[in-house]
Description:
two-stranded antiparallel ribbon, rod-shaped, CATH 1.20.1330.10, four-stranded antiparallel β-sheet, alpha+beta, 390 residues
Amino acid sequence: MTSLITNTSAMVALQTLRGINNGLDATNTRVSTGLRINSAQDGAAYWSIATTTRSDNGALGAAKDALALGKSSVDVAKTGMDEALDALKQVKNLLVTASSPDADRAKIQQEIKIQLDRINGAANSASTSGNNWLAVDSSATGYNATKSVVGSFSRSATGVSIDTIDIDTSGVKLYDSNSTVHGTVDGDIGTGAGSMDVLETGLGNTFASDNTSARSGSIAFDGAATTADTAAEVKALVDAFKTGVSATAVGNDKLAIMDKVRAAYTMQADGTGGVVTVSTIANMDISKLTGSADDLMKISNYASIVDEAIGDMTDANTTLGANAARIASQSNFAQALIDANDRAIGALVDADMEAESTKLKALQTQQQLAIQSLSIANSSTQNVLSLFRS
């Protein structure tokens, strides 16, 4: 039966065309965005997982930026330490030169001061965003020797966590202006109730400053007139002194590399006497020393003290280098995680462009056929007119 009111064929053709158009719109969206899952209605589970993973990638990117900032701080400190180490090696070379009997020690001391100023300048300049690891004041409010660098972001069943790389800079600092520690150590060095008394008594002589500083000087002794008449006994006294100035809660071990009080000794070749020198690197002064046997032993002691500080700087530089390598490795790992997450997101929501292209061609063909079918269905009612022609 043909009806003018209800055209069943046109309705079917129109419904088919609507379905094809909907499919064509969805395919066009996938082709234009490159995504199979554009919103939650396209696939709630996959969309939720992909959204969470994208959020985690953002946090990992922030952690990677923090690692870059942390590495910058380490690199700046290491650059300053490299400069200081090179300058201290020059000081050691100058002390070797000063060991020559006819050396002009006043001029050499001027050169030593230049190198010490160079170390001071390197320490003060090694600052990143106002943060300096080489020149510090450990008595300042909020000071913390442990520097934490954001290392990674992780998610577990119990929630999210931020992992850090902790760097202990207490052994890296070159200068520390903590007056409390300096005062305690100065008290131990002095001739009052400190461990210097033990050293002086054992050596049978009095500590004499080589310059205007109470933190740099020597004790010359005659082995025949004291109980310390062997190298082993002198070493025991020096070790006891080092222990004494480090034993207190705020002692020598809390001071920085350039501030730390150090001690060295040299015995005469015949073992009948020698010189013990106590000094910091920053305060040593050879300008008034002569070519006498005692003064040459003092210079030798200063060279030993500098060599010990070079060892400390080398260890500090090793610490900085190891942490720089660790941060770089963690940064690479964070980037690898970001890449892995991107691949996971792609597997969940990315469109298969080859398949979508084929599907698009097919739907375009179906659309054309559906339009043709609808046109035929609509024109069928025109045939009713022929029934009423005379």
